[in-house]
Structure prediction request, 338 residues.
Amino acid sequence: MSIITVLYAIIIFCLLIFIHELGHLIAAKSVGIKVNEFALGMGPLIFKFKKGETDYALRALPIGGACAMEGEDKDSEDPRGFNNKGFFAKAITVVAGSFMNVLLAVLLLSGIVFSFGTPGTTVDLVGEGSPAEAAGLRSGDRIVAISGIEIEKWEDVGYAIEHSDGDELNLTVLRDGEATEISSGYYEDEGGARKIGISPGMEHRFSNIFASIGRGAVATFEMGRSMIVIIGQLFTGKAAISDLTGPVGIVYVVSDVAKNGIGQLIQLAALISLNLGIINMLPLPALDGGRLLFLIIRKFTGKVITDEIEGRIHMVGLLLLFGLMIFVTFQDVTRFLI
Prediction:
C-alpha cells in the first residue's frame, strides 16, 4: 500500500465529512440557529479562524467533524439556540447532513455516467495470472449467468461470485454471439471478498447532462436499496458485525480500487458517501436519525424528556459508537495488517 493510496483515502474521508457537516452548517444558518464551531477532523487543533459568530477549525485526525450548535446537547437561554427553535427548523438541520451525502453520491455517479458510462456485463480486462485468465475468459465476453444466477448488470457478477457454492464457478458467456460454458476458480482479496480477476467494460454513456443526472439518481437509489438490505441483515442476524469494515479496511479497498482507474475510485467515493448518509439516519442515539427520532417523540410528549437528558443519551450512544469503531478497527488491523 503506497503513500498515494493513503492520500486518496484521506481526501475521500475529508471530502465526505466536510460535505456532511456543511449540510448541517448551511441548514442551521438558514433557519437562524447559532453555530459556535464548524470543524473538519477530530482531536488536537491545527488552526482555526473566526468569521462572524462561528469558529472554523481544522483538527488533526481526519476521522470526523463537527457542526457545534448552541443548545444542541444542553439547555440554552439563547433564543437562537437549537433547543429553542421549532420542530421543522430542527428537523431540517438534523437531516441536512445526510441529504448532502446522498446528493453528493448522485452527482458523483452522474459524473461517471456522463464521462465514462456505466459498468456493463461485458468483460473489458482480464488480469494476468488471474483465475479468469486460467479459465480462458476473454475481453469482449458478455457474462449472462454464473452458477445458475442470471446476470443482468455488473453488480450481479459480484453477488453471484460471492454466493456461489463449491470451489469452481460455472460461467455462461456470449462469445461471438454463441453461448460458451467456462469453469473458473476464484481467489479472496485482503478483505475476504471473492474475485476472479476481471474488470467490466463501460456502457450506456449519456452525452446529455440531464439524462446523466437521471441515471445517476437511479444508480444511487439501487445502491441505497442494497445497503438498506445489508443493514437489515445485521439487525436480523443474517449478517455479522465481523462483516463490517472501518477506516483501515476502507484504505485497503481504496488501494485495490485505485488500480482500476479514476472512474472506479469516484464510484467508491459515491458508495461511501451514500453509506455515510444512510448510516447517519438510523434511529440510534448520537446519530442524526436518533436526534430526529427524539424530535418526533418530544413533539408529542412535550418536556417529558429534557434537553439535558437527551444530551446524556446521545453521549452514551457516542461512547458506544466509539467502542464499535475501535472493535471494527481492531478487526481490520488483524485482517489486513497481521
